[in-house]
Amino acid sequence: MQMNRRQLIQWAGATAALASLPATTFAAQDHLKPARLRAGDAVALVAPATVNYDRLRVQLAVETLEAMGLQVDVGKHVLDRFGYLAGTDADRAADLNRAFADPDIKAIFPLTGGWGASRLLPLLDYRSIARNPKILLGYSDITSLLNGIHARTGLVTFHGPNAWSEWNEFSYRSMHQLLFEAEPLAYNNPQDRGVDLVAKDNRTRTINGGLASGKLIGGNLTLVAALLGTPYLPAFDGRILFLEDVGEAIYRVDRMLTQLALAGQLQRLAGIVFGQFTGVAPQPGLGNFSLMDILRQHCEPLGVPCYYGAMFGHVNHNSTLPVGISATMDATAGTLVLNEPAVT
């Protein structure tokens, strides 16, 4: 998720202004699980981030959720436009707050990511969210909502496909096992060597080997770094951090990991699982690092298990991971196993 220096300064100013707005405060619960989904449940389709220019996108998202056996309630402001956002901050937040407060709604599916979801964090009714725990599933820019809501309420949230995403069999099966069947999933990359003697695709790479256990937090690296210094980033102590990103220059990945390290956050972790950083490659010229160079430079000194290549994020095969659930990672084998169901 690329942003030039001027855009970053403007965004930081806007975020600081929003942070001064009042938000409902109370003690977050330690472990607040939503109820599982069942066929026939009503779910909300909302647009908390980027504007949607195509009504067909909304129609396809609705049809996708209906194909899962769900009844879809489309948010009032899903088709709104406010600059590059899907409506004003107040209207987008109202759709989210309404969905959480509605006892008939069992899960909330953002239409897509993009930009602007973090602007809603000061406007959410966290007391209502805690009283009405339900599934929130999304990724990319939705990372800010997943972690912010978890930090403020303790609600387990879910990093996985947005409603308008590529819902292939792999991505759908991962979500269904976790959210409908309440299975404590084991995440390992399927290996298909095709006509070759060894599998070449979807391989994991060990950075620091070993086992680690802890509750999961994370998502898109750009958004995790942007939440640093706010009350919307969960504590890193003893956690397993999972990270992915898309279309970033190597130096930006380096800068964001450096920011997390300088803030003393990486040093608190039990382990790190990196997804597949899509479209991240060295820029032309001399003296560049590869992505793996940067990840090793940041992870090796930590001395905790770390591996790269898990299948989640901006990839065709997008696993659903729960924020706030205990898991055990094996960085040598490149696997992650949930220690408990993520829903009740």
UniProtKB/TrEMBL annotation:
Q: Does the keyword Hydrolase apply?
A: yes
Question: Which InterPro entries would you find in this protein's record?
Answer: Carboxypeptidase_A_C_sf, Class_I_gatase-like, LdcA_N, Peptidase_S66_N, Peptidase_S66C, S66_fam, TAT_signal
Identify the Pfam families for this entry. Peptidase_S66, Peptidase_S66C
Q: Which GO terms describe its biological process?
A: proteolysis
Per its record, what are the GO molecular function terms?
carboxypeptidase activity; serine-type peptidase activity
Signal sequence interval, chain numbering: 1-27
Catalytic positions are: 140, 244, 314
* Keyword annotations from UniProtKB, A to Z: Carboxypeptidase, Hydrolase, Protease, Serine protease, Signal
Q: Which domain of life is it from?
A: Bacteria
Q: Which residues form the LD-carboxypeptidase N-terminal domain?
A: 43-160
What are the LD-carboxypeptidase C-terminal domain coordinates in residue numbering? 213-329
UniProt cross-references to Gene3D superfamilies, sorted A to Z: Class I glutamine amidotransferase-like, LD-carboxypeptidase A C-terminal domain-like
**Similarity section:** Belongs to the peptidase S66 family.
Protein name as it appears in the record: LD-carboxypeptidase
Which species is listed as the source? Answer: Pseudohalioglobus sediminis
